[in-house]
Amino acid sequence: MATSLPRHVGIIMDGNGRWAQLRRQPRIEGHRVGAQSVRDITRAARQLGIEALTLYAFSSQNWSRPVDEVAALMELLRDYLVDERPEIMDNQIRLFAIGDLERLPALVRDPLDALCRDSAHHRGMTLTLALSYGGRESLARAARSLAVQVAAGTLDPRAIDVEALGRALPTGELPPLDLLIRTSGEQRISNFMLWELAYAELVFVDVLWPDFRRAELDRCLEAYAARERRFGLTSSQLADTDSDVEPTSG
Length: 250
Ligand code: IPE
Ligand code: IPE
Ligand code: MG
Hints:
Elements: E1 8-12, H1 16-22, H2 27-48, E2 52-59, H3 67-90, E3 93-98, H4 106-118, E4 125-133, H5 135-151, H6 162-168, E5 179-182, E6 201-204, H7 214-225, H8 235-240
Parallel strand pairs: 1-2, 1-5, 2-4, 3-4, 5-6
């Protein structure tokens, strides 16, 4: 049977703009309040004992938003990294980032690099920020890195299997993704963790991200705990084993 608490939770934090528009405020106000949800949910996940929390904060495609919104988001990210540093350091959280990080401006990149480096030895929970991130971009990059090794003669093409490709992804060291939550009522993946989602449970909630706090997370975890994860097997096969480990492709 599956353990009731997911090891790895991913969240598509959506609905900031609509939250602000409903209040006749500029979209950035929604992003600002959304940053409070990030703090609340990170703290809750840490307290619950979740091993890994991956937050989709800015997609590869979000670069095409109006320049003012992108600039304001970058400043909010910088503020978040500066303000959260003590909490992350004090609570043994390991900060990790995935995505095309070279595209980020130095005002984000510098505090991000510093906090990732300084928290790298922490064992409490891995908080991964998906920044300038796209699932397809991530897969293309992994394929390229394997191709480079093949061209250099250091990798046998026959060794490229599900495990090898998974390890070449930036999420390769994280536990398998168990639960994906998307807020705001949209039911799509929007280029998030395409590979890692293979056997994740999906939970879509109507709440806009700035309103998503611990009580909403608890409800999502309850929904997860009620699911039967079969990984391609039958229910009775699962009843015969008490394995809670995701089977590999074989
Ligand atoms: C999610 O909220 C945050 C980012 C994508 C950066 P949105 O800004 O997408 O909010 P909506 O979906 O327009 O309401
Ligand atoms: C997905 O939300 C990206 C993040 C939450 C960072 P979007 O608002 O960009 O996705 P679409 O445009 O609704 O697909
Ligand atoms: Mg959106």
